[in-house]
Specification:
single chain, mainly alpha, 4 strands, disordered C terminus
Length: 326
């Protein structure tokens, strides 16, 4: 799930009109609070009505671990860099600082399934928060975390705990009667799309991802024995909608420029298709982890590669136009 919404650049002509009247800080705060409210309501409804199979204690353990890890690492980081901890300040500022940890904890508790064990959920939440402080790169002139925290915690847990799996997709619509099984996915889709269109401004990324997902399904059906309807089927489920609108659209760990957003979304789809062709499970989460890691490597090597590319451009002869004298 989306866990961090950094300050966005000033609205441009391409930004939705509804977001043009908000400052970047206001847009960040509104997005954070709406994300947090959405995932909290979903967890409450899931445990009481939608058929979530995790223990009732799971979200409390995961969120509590996320809070504790965030406060501990923020205190340590502030002491090392001799700055004021971000949890000290006005209520609104403290709330916005803690909400990413809240979202990470709930995302890990909702999307993982470890039967009656609680340790994997706590581990996932702690890893997700720790990744924000450990894996960083310079983005637009300042140090920033680049791995999606919720996804990172889930991926590391799946790799280290071979008996832990992903919560089954059917639990989102197992108990609601007839029409509600269609209304719930549509409601989640509408709310998430509105949020990303007006506040996170990540629609190019989402469109690139969905187009890429459909394309990889077609390619797999042509080159392998994958059934085209089966390959496209995940797009109709609640899990896919949640992943699309609330996981890969994390503004803190995705590009800002529209073209790069599209490339990021296409990259996730390509990685997913390759993982499916190799029969690797949990492809959605591993695909996002791979693309975030590739972007991190590109960002940390940019200080070395950028001057080399500029030098190459300067030394490459420009092709002569027709009729130009030699």
């Amino acid at each position: 799930m989306t866990t961090t919404v950094p300050a966005s650049p000033a609205p441009t002509a391409s930004a939705p009109a509804a977001s043009a009247g908000l400052t970047p800080q206001q847009r960040r705060s509104k997005a954070l609070r709406r994300f947090a409210l959405s995932i909290t309501v979903l967890n409450v409804l899931g445990l009481t009505w939608l058929g979530f199979e995790q223990a009732w204690a799971t979200p409390f353990v995961a969120v509590g671990t996320a809070y504790a890890t965030e406060l501990l690492l923020e205190t340590t980081d502030a002491a090392v860099h001799r700055r004021r901890p971000r949890y000290l300040g006005p209520f609104g500022q403290v709330l916005d600082f803690m909400l990413p940890a809240h979202i990470t904890g709930l995302a890990c508790s909702m999307l993982l399934f470890a039967s009656d064990r609680l340790a994997p959920y706590a581990f996932a939440a702690a890893v997700g928060i720790a990744s924000k402080y450990v894996v960083r790169a310079r983005v637009r002139g300042k140090s920033q975390h680049v791995l999606n925290p919720s996804n990172t915690g889930i991926v590391v847990t799946l790799l280290l705990y071979d008996w832990v799996g992903i919560a089954p997709p059917y639990e989102f619509t197992e108990y609601p009667p007839g029409p509600l099984r269609w209304i719930i996915p549509l409601a989640v889709l509408g709310a998430g799309t509105l949020l990303n269109a007006k506040l996170t401004l990540k629609m190019p990324l989402l469109l690139g991802w969905m187009a890429g997902f459909a394309l990889q399904a077609v390619i797999r059906s042509l080159l392998t024995d994958a059934w085209i309807l089966g390959a496209l089927g995940p797009m109709t489920g609640v899990a896919f909608v949640l992943y699309t609108n609330y996981m890969i659209s994390d503004p803190g760990t995705t590009p800002v420029a529209p073209r790069r957003q599209v490339a990021f979304g296409l990259g996730i789809a390509a990685a997913y298709g390759a993982l499916m062709a190799l029969h690797i499970t949990f492809g959605l989460f591993f695909a996002l982890g791979i693309v975030c890691a590739v972007r991190w490597l590109a960002l940390i090597t940019l200080p070395v590669t950028a001057p080399l590319l500029q030098r190459l451009r300067r030394t490459t002869p420009v092709a002569r136009t027709a009729g130009e004298a030699p």
